[in-house]
């Protein structure tokens, strides 16, 4: 293990991503599993993190407050819910910690609040931490620049498991932003998130979104560029949450060495 291995705490450690993150940190020789936080009052406080994740005892117990482990960690990884994440960012600002945020579904106001904290906290914030999705974002930028103003209609289709609470997914929205940015369009103006009834023909500049929620789908995203006579589809399919978790641990190692500021996965992966 490297002498500079960051000590990582995982908030929301009993969740789908939280348990996967425990596994990912344990598999990384350059990261230390320093703690896990469950909801205040949760019956899981005191449970062994390895046993919670189903990977065998690790000798680190879950706690139900960040204060309980404030001196034990350097970087917090947070995949929870917007309000929880913002409260944790405030804690990181107060106590000089770095943070990796995977939570999606933040409103514009919540994103602005996050930006304010990131002036004081080294922060990686990304709706999708997989290498494949972040490469896909680059492919989309290239495709949009080449095709977008040539009469190709652009639609974003995403599918996720039945438990997901936000829609469209953070990744789908980021894909829409990337495509819109490449075409000098504003997603707020051109994004279409619902079509029902007599909604009329398609505006050529629309960027449409469609959402599927079903079963145990880990996460699938397609951006379609369609015109008369042909259709290009750029698709990413995640088949395991480990792809997100490995990306988050990589981001944690990276951000532990950074100054305060808001960063994305393209910074972590050196894709810009
Ligand atoms: N950026 C990325 O790569 C990815 C992002 N995500 C995003 O991550 C988020 C979480 O997803 P997922 O793991 O599926 O959701 P889960 O609901 O499975 O996990 C969230 C966890 O947070 C816990 N929690 C809620 N409040 C607190 C609190 N105050 N303190 C500590 N823990 C708390 C919940 O506890 P309880 O169950 O008791 O409520 C739950 O265990 C979503 O926003 C999702 O979109 C998901 C995958 C990849
Ligand atoms: O909630 C999920 O599961 C996922 N959420 C992220 C999103 O909203 O984009 C990323 C991933 O697709 C899984």
Automatic annotation (TrEMBL):
Pfam family, one: DapB_N
EC number(s) from the headed UniProt entry: 1.17.1.8
Dihydrodipicolinate reductase C-terminal domain mapped to chain residues: 132-269
Pathway: Amino-acid biosynthesis; L-lysine biosynthesis via DAP pathway; (S)-tetrahydrodipicolinate from L-aspartate: step 4/4
InterPro entries (alphabetical): DapB_C (IPR022663), DapB_N (IPR000846), DapB_N_CS (IPR022664), DHDPR_bac (IPR023940), NAD(P)-bd_dom_sf (IPR036291)
Chief place of localization: cytoplasm
Residues reported to bind (S)-2,3,4,5-tetrahydrodipicolinate: 161, 170-171
Active site (catalytic residues): 160 (proton donor/acceptor), 164 (proton donor)
Residues that hold NAD(+) according to the record: 12-17, 39, 102-104, 126-129
Domain Dihydrodipicolinate reductase N-terminal: 7-129
Catalytic reactions of this protein: (S)-2,3,4,5-tetrahydrodipicolinate + NAD(+) + H2O = (2S,4S)-4-hydroxy-2,3,4,5-tetrahydrodipicolinate + NADH + H(+); (S)-2,3,4,5-tetrahydrodipicolinate + NADP(+) + H2O = (2S,4S)-4-hydroxy-2,3,4,5-tetrahydrodipicolinate + NADPH + H(+)
Keyword NAD found: yes
Localization in the cell: Cytoplasm
Keywords, comma-separated and alphabetical: Amino-acid biosynthesis, Cytoplasm, Diaminopimelate biosynthesis, Lysine biosynthesis, NAD, NADP, Oxidoreductase
Highest taxon, organism lineage: Bacteria
Similarity comment text for this entry: Belongs to the DapB family.
Subunit composition and interactions: Homotetramer.
Cited function: Catalyzes the conversion of 4-hydroxy-tetrahydrodipicolinate (HTPA) to tetrahydrodipicolinate.
Cited PANTHER family: 4-HYDROXY-TETRAHYDRODIPICOLINATE REDUCTASE 1, CHLOROPLASTIC-RELATED (PTHR20836:SF0), DIHYDRODIPICOLINATE REDUCTASE (PTHR20836)
Protein name: 4-hydroxy-tetrahydrodipicolinate reductase
Gene name of the record: dapB
């Amino acid at each position: 293990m490297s002498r500079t291995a960051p000590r990582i705490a995982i908030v929301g450690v009993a969740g789908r991503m939280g348990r996967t993150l425990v596994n990912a940190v344990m598999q990384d020789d350059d990261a230390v599993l320093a703690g896990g936080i469950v909801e205040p009052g949760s019956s899981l406080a005191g449970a062994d993190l390895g046993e919670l994740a189903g990977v065998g005892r690790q000798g680190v117990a879950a706690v139900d407050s960040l204060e309980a482990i404030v001196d034990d960690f350097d970087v917090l990884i947070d995949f929870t819910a917007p309000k929880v994440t913002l409260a944790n960012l405030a804690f990181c600002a107060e106590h000089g910690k770095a943070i990796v945020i995977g939570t999606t579904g933040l409103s514009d106001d919540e994103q602005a609040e996050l930006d304010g904290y990131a002036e004081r906290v080294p922060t990686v914030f990304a709706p999708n931490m997989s290498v494949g999705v972040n490469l896909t974002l680059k492919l989309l930028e290239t495709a949009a620049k080449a095709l977008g103003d040539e009469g190709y209609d652009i639609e974003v289709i995403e599918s996720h498991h039945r438990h997901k609470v936000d829609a469209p997914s953070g990744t789908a929205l980021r894909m829409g932003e990337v495509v819109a940015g490449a075409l000098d369009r504003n997603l707020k103006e051109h994004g279409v998130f619902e079509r029902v009834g007599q909604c009329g023909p398609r505006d050529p500049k629309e960027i449409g979104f469609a959402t599927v929620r079903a079963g145990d789908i880990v996460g699938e995203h397609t951006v379609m560029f369609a015109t008369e006579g042909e259709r290009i589809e750029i698709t990413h399919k995640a088949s395991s949450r480990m792809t997100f978790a490995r990306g988050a641990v990589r981001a944690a190692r990276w951000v532990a060495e950074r100054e305060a500021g808001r960063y994305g996965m393209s910074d972590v992966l050196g894709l810009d």
